[in-house]
Structures are given as structure tokens and as C-alpha cells.
Design goal:
Blueprint: H1 7-10, E1 17-20, H2 22-36, E2 42-47, H3 54-63, E3 66-69, H4 72-80, E4 88-90, H5 97-106, E5 110-113, H6 116-128, E6 133-140, E7 162-163, H7 167-176, E8 180-186, H8 196-215, E9 222-224, H9 244-254, E10 262-267, H10 269-272, E11 276-287, E12 292-296, H11 305-309, E13 315-317, E14 324-330, E15 339-347, E16 354-357, E17 378-381
Parallel strand pairs: 1-17, 2-3, 2-10, 3-4, 4-5, 5-6, 6-7, 6-8, 8-9, 9-10, 12-14
Antiparallel strand pairs: 1-11, 11-12, 11-16, 13-16, 14-15
Helix pairs in contact: 2-3, 5-6, 8-9
């Protein structure tokens, strides 16, 4: 594999750190924009929870996309990055009064409401401000997506959304509230989904919901189908840009959209995952009776996905020219779960080698912590190192 990393620049930097390929990020964003030319009613909102790095947000904001936020802090980050409030959707099952008031003050595009209780509080707080709140009702479609349980969001037992069989109660409630401006519906079935059939099922559910609302005198102007499109973790170079064409076409072919409706998407992982890599140095190569451990200066506090989800990330030794050997790649954190990969084939590895953990641009830096009182990882872009 040709080395795509500027190792000579890495020598001067303290590890671990996140390295972002902004050329790839822009190529990904431009691919989406090109696809949207064929879908003028589609709007993309970047899911800030995937990566809130200011340099990343700046590029996405300049691309003209909106934001999908799940906290008041994310709303503030979006606005600071220059994303208009009129393009901000706000989801989450536990919006606090302070966060709701913040969103009302900025007059965001829409609250994605997840419970009757939340709807009533938003109505009350909007009334106190003598304003109205734009809302979409998030429904739980009870669809089991082809993904792991920890990132599935659309099953009946998940905490998200209102059960579909409560739709009549929802319609009555929406009609009764005076400080609510009903915009439409929101559904999200999970993350890292590669089976397009899951989105076919989602489209069918959306069609039924829209027909029901409009038959009861509540027209729908906005439909939000969440995100969820997965990436190729096994081959991040060949699969650098996800198949957005197939993704958007699934909805074009299966979701009934009339001329006055907009279809919203909340893409996160598929936009930023492949442009980010966690760079670490080898602290030790430890020989044990049945295996060898490559011990990194990066740990689960820097990238928690393997420990939390048993997630796979491609791991490469970008320093070594030698033949591959088999290792367990682990971090220094005092937890047995601090493992990036077991039985990994790496070019023969030595102390001081640079290790690249790929496809880490989504839910890497954004989920980092100071566990064991370790420092948060720094971050650099390719333009920073020119």
C-alpha cells in the first residue's frame, strides 16, 4: 500500500492525535452535492455528534449543509460554525428546559419531538416566550435494522420516538396545542447500515404515516428519515466515499414525496468517518507465551468504539517496511477491554513505529475522554501540516 500519510511531519508531533484528510472530506461533500442535483427536494443536515471538530464543521458549513443536533452545546457549535439556525434540526429524548429555550431563542428549523411529555413542555416554554415552535414528531417504527444492537434506534424496545400505534393520540395532542407549528415526521432506525432493504422498509412506514396524518387534516411539509448509511471499515482506501447514489435512490424509488414536501437526511458517519485516522506510536512490543502485544500510546479513552461496540477498525503500521506478523494491538489504559484489535497482521513492528487506526473520523474524537487522567488527543488536518 502506498503511504498516504506525511510521516516526516508526524515525527515532530506528540502522539496520539487525530489526523484529518480534508481533501477526502471535500470530495465526499462534493459527491453528496452532485447527487442532490438530481433530488431538489432533498436536504442534508450533518449529524454533529459524529465529529464536532471546528475545522471539520467549518468545511461542512461552507458546503451549505444544515445540522442535526442532539444537545444545546451542538446547537451552539453549529451556529458558531456558521450553519444557519433555519437549517438546524434538534433531536434527543432528554432535552432540558435550558436547551429548549436556547433553540427557541435561535428559532431553529425544527424540534424532533420524542414524547408526549416533551411536546407539552415545548408548547409551554414557547408560550412563555410568546412564540411558536416548529416541531416534527419522531416515531419509533419498530424496524430491526442490520446493525449492532448498541447503535440500533428504531426497535420497539429502544428509548427513541413515539410508538406508531399511538398515532391517533399524537394527532389529537398536536391539534390541541396552541404554541406548536406542526411540520412533519422524523424516523431514524440506526447507524452503520449497509443493507438498502432496511431503508425500503423505512420508506414504506413513512408512506403510511404521511397518509394517516393528511387524512386527519394535518398536512406534512417535512419528512426526516434520519441517517444511518454505513461505510467500508475493512477497506477505507477503496471504499473512501460511500455509495450515496444508491442510498438516495432507495428513497426516490420507494418514498412517495409530493411537490410541496421536503425530505431531510441526517448524515454523520458517512460524511466524516473515512477522512479521520488516529495516529499513535508503539510504546512497547511485549512478548508473551502465546502471542505478542503491540502496546500503543493511544488507548480506549482516545478511541472507544472497539471497547464499547467491539467495532472493527483497520490498523496499519505506516513506518515498517518488513514482512507482516500477527499481534494483538492494545492501549495503556488499565482495562482489559482496552484492545484495538486481536490477531492483527502488521508489518513487523518495533518501538517508536507509527500505527494508523483508520476510519476514525466518526465517533472517535467526539467520544474521547480523560479516563485514567489521560490527556485528550490533539488533532491536525492535512493543511495544518503542509
Amino acid at each position: 500500500m502506498a503511504n498516504i500519510f506525511p510521516i516526516e511531519k508526524f515525527d515532530k508531533l506528540e502522539t496520539p492525535f487525530y489526523y484529518y484528510d480534508t481533501h477526502l472530506l471535500r470530495r465526499t461533500l462534493n459527491t453528496i452535492k452532485d447527487e442532490l442535483k438530481s433530488h431538489p427536494q432533498y436536504e442534508v443536515h450533518y449529524a454533529i455528534k459524529a465529529n464536532a471538530n471546528p475545522a471539520i464543521l467549518d468545511i461542512i458549513s461552507k458546503c451549505g449543509f444544515g445540522a442535526d443536533c442532539v444537545s444545546g452545546g451542538e446547537i451552539e457549535a453549529a451556529i458558531k460554525a456558521g450553519i444557519p439556525a433555519s437549517k438546524i434540526a434538534y433531536a434527543g429524548v432528554g432535552k432540558t428546559d435550558r436547551e429548549i429555550m436556547l433553540a427557541l431563542e435561535h428559532n431553529i428549523m425544527c424540534f424532533n419531538v420524542e414524547s408526549f411529555e416533551e411536546l407539552e413542555i415545548i408548547n409551554m416554554l414557547a408560550g412563555e416566550k410568546k412564540t411558536t415552535a416548529n416541531v416534527a414528531i419522531r416515531f419509533n417504527p419498530d424496524i430491526k435494522a442490520h446493525t449492532i444492537d448498541n447503535i440500533a434506534t428504531g426497535k420497539k424496545e429502544n428509548k427513541f420516538g413515539i410508538a406508531i400505534d399511538m398515532i391517533d393520540e399524537v394527532i389529537e395532542e398536536v391539534k390541541s396545542l396552541g404554541n406548536i407549528n406542526f411540520k412533519g415526521i422524523h424516523l431514524h432506525i440506526g447507524s452503520q447500515i449497509l443493507e438498502m432493504e432496511d431503508f425500503v422498509k423505512l420508506s414504506s412506514t413513512v408512506n403510511t404515516l404521511v397518509e394517516t396524518f393528511e387524512s386527519k387534516g394535518l398536512p406534512i411539509s417535512d419528512i426526516n428519515v434520519g441517517g444511518g448509511l454505513g461505510i467500508d471499515y475493512s477497506d477505507p482506501d477503496f471504499g473512501a466515499v460511500p455509495d450515496f447514489k444508491s442510498y438516495f435512490n432507495v428513497f426516490k424509488q420507494n418514498l412517495k414525496l409530493n411537490e410541496r414536501q421536503k425530505l431531510h437526511f441526517e448524515l454523520g458517519r458517512s460524511i466524516v468517518a473515512q477522512c479521520g485516522t488516529l495516529i499513535s506510536r508503539v510504546t512497547y512490543v511485549k512478548r508473551a507465551p502465546i502471542k505478542e502485544f503491540v502496546i500503543l500510546d493511544a488507548g480506549m479513552n482516545d478511541l472507544v468504539r472497539p471497547a464499547m461496540y467491539k467495532a472493527y477498525h483497520k490498523i496499519e503500521n505506516i513506518s515498517s517496511p518488513y514482512e507482516p506478523k500477527c499481534y494483538d494491538v492494545v492501549g495503556p489504559v488499565c482495562e482489559s477491554s482496552d484492545v484495538f484489535g486481536k490477531d492483527i497482521m502488521l508489518n513487523e513492528t518495533h518501538r517508536g513505529d507509527f500505527i494508523a487506526i483508520r476510519s476514525a473520523g466518526a465517533y472517535g474524537e467526539s467520544m474521547a475522554s480523560t479516563y485514567n487522567l489521560r490527556k485528550l488527543p490533539l488533532s491536525y488536518t492535512d493543511t495544518d501540516l503542509q
